[in-house]
Amino acid sequence: MNVLGSNIIKDVERLPKELINKFVPLATANISDVMGRFRAMDFTIQSMNKPGVHLVGSAITVRIHPTDNAMVHRALDMAQPGDIIVIDAFGGRENAIVGELICHYAMARGIAGIVTNSPIRDSLAIREMDLPVYARGKTPRGPLKEGSGEINTTISCGTVPVNPGDIIVGDDDGVVVVPKQDALTVLEQTLLIQQEESAIIKEIYATGEWNRKWLNNLLHKTK
Ligand SMILES: O=C([O-])CC(=O)C(=O)O
Ligand SMILES: [Mg+2]
Which family does it belong to (predicted)? Predict the structure, then answer.
C-alpha cells in the first residue's frame, strides 16, 4: 500500500524519445514564453556546470526532507537512461543533497541530469562533468541518510509543479518544466517563436528599425 509521505511509484509514463529530443535546440526562455511565461523555475535554481550546458529529458520526481537524501539514492537505482531526477527538498539551505559520487553514478546509468532546490557539494568536480546539474547553491555540509520521502509524486521545484514524465529543459538561463500532456503544442509554438525571433534580429540589422506594433498600441491607449 502507498502511504503518503513514503510513496514510491515505480511506473512512469514517459513520452517517446523522438518527441523529447525535439526540445534539444529550443531555448528555455522561448519555451517559457509559450507557456504564458509560467513554468520556468525561479532564479535560485542555477546551473552548476560550465556555460553552454543543455539539459533535456523526462522527469523522475523525488520529495525529501531538506537534510536527508536516502530517497535520492533509491531514485538513482530506479531511473532509466534519459531520465532527469528532479528533487524537492523544500528549498532547504542547510545540507547538500547531491555530490560527485551521486553524479558519477547518474552518468554511468545514462541519467540525463539532476535538478534540486537544495544546495550541492563537490561543486568543482561537478562543474567539470558532462552531467547537467541545477541546484540552489553549494555547501560542504553533507546529507543525512535516514530514509523518508516520496518518489514519482507531484512535487514543487523552483516554484513550479513537476510531475513524473514531464519534459525538463535547462540551459544557461535555468530550467523549464513542460507538462507532458502539452508537450507537442509547446514544441510547435516554441519553434514558431524561434523562427519569429530570428526574423526580427535579421530585420533589425537589415533596416536599423524594430517594428513593435504592440508598443505603438500601448502608447495610443495611454494618451
Ligand atoms: O553523501 C552524499 O550522498 C552526497 C555526496 O557528497 C556525494 O554523492 O558525493
Ligand atoms: Mg561527496
Answer: Belongs to the class II aldolase/RraA-like family.
CATH of the domain at 107: 3.50.30.40
Please tell me the pTM assigned to this model.
Answer: 0.95
Q: How many domains does the chain have?
A: 1
Using CA atoms, how far apart are residues 26 and 23, in angstroms rounded to an integer? 5
Report which bound ligand comes closest to the CA of 98: 1
Strands (E), 13-139: 46-47, 55-63, 83-88, 113-116, 133-135
Ligand closest to the CA atom of residue 143: 1
Query: Which atom of ligand 1 is nearest to 97's Cα?
Result: 4
Provide the residues around ligand 2 (an ion) whose CB is within 5 A.
99, 122
Flag whether 54 is in a domain: yes
Q: Considering the domain boundaries, does residue 145 fall inside one?
A: yes
Q: Which atom of ligand 1 is nearest to the CA of 69?
A: 3
Rounded Cα gap, residues 200 and 79, in angstroms: 41
**Is the predicted pLDDT of residue 1 greater than 70, yes or no?**
no
**Domain of residue 160, residue span:** 17-197
Q: What ipTM, to 2 d.p.? A: 0.97
